[in-house]
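To whoever picks this up:

The nightly regression suite flagged Beta-fructofuranosidase, insoluble isoenzyme 1-like as changed. Nothing in the input moved, so I suspect the structure step. Input below, exactly as stored in the fixture:
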Amino acid sequence: MYYNGVYHLFYQYNPKGAVWGNIVWAHSVSTDLINWIPLEPAIYPSKIFDKFGTWSGSATILPGNKPIILYTGIIDANRTQVQNYAIPANLSDPYLRKWIKPDNNPLIVADMSINKTQFRDPTTAWMGRDGHWRILVGSVKNHRGKVILYRSKDFMKWTKAKHPLHTATNTGNWECPDFFPVSLKHTNGLDTSYRGEYTKHVLKVSLDVTRFEYYTVGTYDTRKDRYIPDNTSVDGWKGLRLDYGNYYASKSFFDPSKNRRIMLGWANESDTVDDDVRKGWAGVHPIPRKLWLDPSGKQLVQWPVEELETLRKKKVQLSNHKLYKGEMIEVKGITVAQADVEVTFSFASLDKAEPFDPSWADLYAQDVCAIKGSTVQGGLGPFGLITLASKNLEEYTLVFFRVFKAQDKYKVLMCSDASRSTLKNETTMYKPSFGGYVDVDLADKKLSLRSLIDNSVVESFGAGGKTCITSRVYPTLAIFDKAHLFAFNNGTEAITIETLNAWSMADAKLH
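Regenerated output under the current build:
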């Protein structure tokens, strides 16, 4: 949340080790979303209503500029879940270090119709046209994921609505729901309670079964308190994802200081628990993203917050460089293990795009990336970046595009391939070739890519942020100054690097 000039990030954290358990609400503050000051935990198990755990939730700023947190408390060894609140002990403390959990908790207890062990992660509240507050709590019943709606006049006494705000069959438990308005007219964010014209709503859920983030764009019927996804949005596993890689349990907030909506997510580790214990930490927060509705109205667009650019240092540039089949060029002169790379590729023709195999229609993009990897020569693509590469290419992580011809249109596939990212060969390491399709008009015969490379993270944004993929990788050779960066083309159609700008990135300050 943003409060009196300070950003507050609360996150699930185990102070006793780099494994899951002993979960508290850790608390860090920042004035720019990039440099952070870690503080003591804001909320931790201490009362009868959260004795067995303080799980996820959200912050809301109440009238009179008063922040309040709603969170899930675990009350017994059976993981029975209730919804609690906490308030700052001292509003004049600029960092709001201390939080109080009043004795009238819990505010919400599951009734008989709810699975009380799958009942968690209350959202930021919004105010309806009747002046009453509303929140959602994620849940599931008979494999049907749902967001249960509660209403309150005073934020203290909550009543369950007759119907969920939305529900979908065969989707499993819905975690970390997020519900917010987006503008059809501009890229500015909207306050969660905004009720003006020219808006759509977005419902985002984290699906426990797949461990991916899905969202739909649709209409919020404020009279019936129902959300209806547009017919261009699919509920569930075949739907749109916020990020097609290692990104989960995200939460957005409205930033009134710059009129934007910002998304923060979590990228967990892909190596072994033993490695986490050796490192002494597990899980990172990817760079905060501004998000808005694409002009088509069909999907969200995400882009790293502008403040990230304050970390840019040395810059190198390439322009109008042609790459023929099998060619690559090294990007030199910056620290490529910690870099920000923006590149625009162009091509003279779409004629060599490969036919899209109809049998792939039921596959996820990730599966097609595995079939049509970077080493499988294509027509138009694969082309893109080879990041965190060792000198002789024993290790590398690729981010690339492939263009297919599918009946009457072109399909753009974006992949982030970690399968050769490390020489470590633990069988439990997760090294997939993540992938997503990019809904982009190729009339100008161009595709852009931005990759944020940060030692064990490659966070990529295709076509200006229409498709995002985060990969976690653990090279053994391609580390620090031993890492290399290349642009490559493995298609028969020549590709032109119209512009490539790459920067060394400074370390963010952790006070």
